[in-house]
Amino acid sequence: MTVRHRGALAAMAAGVAALTIATLVACGSQPAEDVGGDEAAALATGTPTPTAGAGTGGPSVPVTAGDLPTGERTVPPVKLRIPAIDVTATVNPVGVDTRTDEFDVPPSVDQIGWYRYGPGLETDAGSVVIAGHVDSSEQGKGAFFRLRELDRGDTLTATGADGKPRPYRVVAREEYVKTKIPLDRYFARDGKPRLTLITCGGPFDPKTRHYRDNIVVTAVPA
């Protein structure tokens, strides 16, 4: 699973990052009926609605800039358990590969990546983003192969580097054409605390070797 952005990952000196993210690209799954979209949107209070779109000449989401979390106050997730879909996966801190301008998700499809320039598990505001592969032609099914099966009320547990397990409850599952996903909402550092899980879905394009859509699951502290 990768996150591709338009522009570049700007200088991170002095604890400041600027990132323009335009497209999420991953591996695929079957279409899923959306549930809980209104509730997921309501969690992101204060987050602007995307404005520019394809063909406007500008980025599809605003640039996010702000202080990077410091190691002393950030609790990275290191393990994710989702009993409903039989997932126990290692979580690795990742950023953006400056060579490809993509979310640098672990290449092993049984592992998943936490976006380390966003909030950690201790946050009292914003979206903790974890992304992963659905499958691979070489490795088979990935950790998020069944992510589309999650429904409202399902529970999951994210364990932090501090050893503390934190329970969450799923409130929404949504599917977007990858060029239309509101990334500013899902990568926001404001709004209520929530966990955002992202992989891919929809039909596979054999020419581009990508799937058309993204599956996004939103969960809140239980």
From TrEMBL:
<keyword id="KW-0732">Signal</keyword>
<dbReference type="InterPro" id="IPR005754">
    <property type="entry name" value="Sortase"/>
</dbReference>
<feature type="signal peptide">
    <location>
        <begin position="1"/>
        <end position="32"/>
    </location>
</feature>
<dbReference type="Pfam" id="PF04203">
    <property type="entry name" value="Sortase"/>
</dbReference>
<dbReference type="InterPro" id="IPR023365">
    <property type="entry name" value="Sortase_dom-sf"/>
</dbReference>
<feature type="region of interest" description="Disordered">
    <location>
        <begin position="42"/>
        <end position="74"/>
    </location>
</feature>
<keyword id="KW-0378">Hydrolase</keyword>
<protein>
    <submittedName>
        <fullName>Sortase family protein</fullName>
    </submittedName>
</protein>
<dbReference type="GO" id="GO:0016787">
    <property type="term" value="F:hydrolase activity"/>
</dbReference>
<feature type="compositionally biased region" description="Low complexity">
    <location>
        <begin position="42"/>
        <end position="53"/>
    </location>
</feature>
<dbReference type="InterPro" id="IPR042001">
    <property type="entry name" value="Sortase_F"/>
</dbReference>
